[in-house]
């Protein structure tokens, strides 16, 4: 009998005229507590105690972020990060700050693009207005892709370093011969003419050797390593001319 009373406790009173269930009473009490529960600021996405960005309606993106139109990229990034941290948690404020920042970035990108186009246009116009001999000279020059320039620069820099490291044992004749062969190979691959490749390659070699023989004696000895000979420094000049000849000449 006691177990039955504990499993479903009910109470009867002569005043109410009906039985009161403990479970029903607890449910009503829980519902009352739920309805009366106070909501905090975290539960409200756009209100409560979360600070609101006051310049959401400002049209100018620079004024909205609080920077001048001449502000640097670091200042713009710093203002954006500061405002996002200050108004974190308010979705509309964060969207307004991000929109102004993205608009500034887009404007900067368009200005840089226009500047590049203007530089190319001005350069092309100067070439068209240049004397005929300049046009003929520029017709023999081309600008290859950056990866081609870097690969050939690495090759001739390696030859120069090899010549310097081997200068105490022997001269740079072997390294110069390999560099000349590489220059002719690159030119033949580009021009599809072995004769033209030989002509440009030997021309670059002779020109570099003559210029090196003239310029190197005029260089102060303080700027050169004591163990570097005239032949070694001249070969370094030759490497530069071979690089320029096989990379930029047609």
Structural summary, described in words:
There is one protein chain. By secondary structure, the chain is an all-alpha fold. The protein is built from ten helices and two strands. A hairpin with a 6-residue loop joins strand 1 and strand 2. It starts with a helix and ends with a helix.
Map the helices and strands:
Layout (H helix, E strand, L loop, with lengths): L1 H6 L2 E3 L6 E3 H14 L25 H5 L7 H14 L4 H39 L2 H7 L7 H20 L7 H19 L2 H22 L14 H19 L2
Antiparallel strand pairs: 1-2
Helix pairs in contact: 4-5, 7-8, 7-10, 8-9, 8-10, 9-10
Task: Please provide the count of β strands.
Answer: 2
Which band does the percent of strand residues land in? under 5%
Shape: elongated
Structural class: mainly alpha
Arithmetic mean pLDDT: 76
Write a brief caption for the model:
This protein is mainly alpha-helical. The protein is built from 10 helices and 2 strands; from the N terminus they run αββααααααααα. The protein has helices at 2-7, 22-35, 61-65, 73-86, 91-129, 132-138, 146-165, 173-191, 194-215, 230-248, and strands at 10-12, 19-21.
List keywords for this structure.
2 strands; single chain; mainly alpha; 250 residues; 10 helices
